[in-house]
Amino acid sequence: GENKIRNILKKLRKQRGLTQKEIAKLLEVSRQTVISIENEHRNPSLELALKISETFDKPIDKIFKLEGSK
Q1: Could you read off the pLDDT of 9-51 as tens digits, one per residue?
Q2: What whole-number distance in Å separates Cα of residue 64 and Cα of residue 56?
Q3: Could you write out the DSSP letters of every residue in 1-26?
Q4: What is the three-class DSSP state of 41?
């Protein structure tokens, strides 16, 4: 079946005290894109995932995880 990708973007953003609007600006995407990734309705492109990883200085696999994977 289709494995859902989970992410901790919202948690990371809140730890930094950033609004969705602020993080959207940093990542050069719309606030709507941030919302849909945070709600796990949409997966980011690889480019955006890398940008998120750089922005929060965390490895991609610490931010995004395949559901059911170790």
Answers
A1: 999 999 999 999 999 999 999 999 999 999 999 999 999 999 9
A2: 12
A3: -PPPEEE-HHHHHHHTT--HHHHHHH
A4: coil
Using DSSP's 3-state secondary structure scheme, residue 31 falls into helix
Contact, 58 vs 12, CB < 8 A? yes
pTM over 0.85: yes
For 65, the enclosing helix (H) or strand (E) is: strand 64-66
Cα angle: 46, vertex 38, 47; to 5 degrees: 15
Structure tokens at 56: 């929060």
Q: For residue 24, count CB atoms less than 10 angstroms from its CB and return exposed for 0-12, middle for 13-18, buried for 19 or more.
A: middle
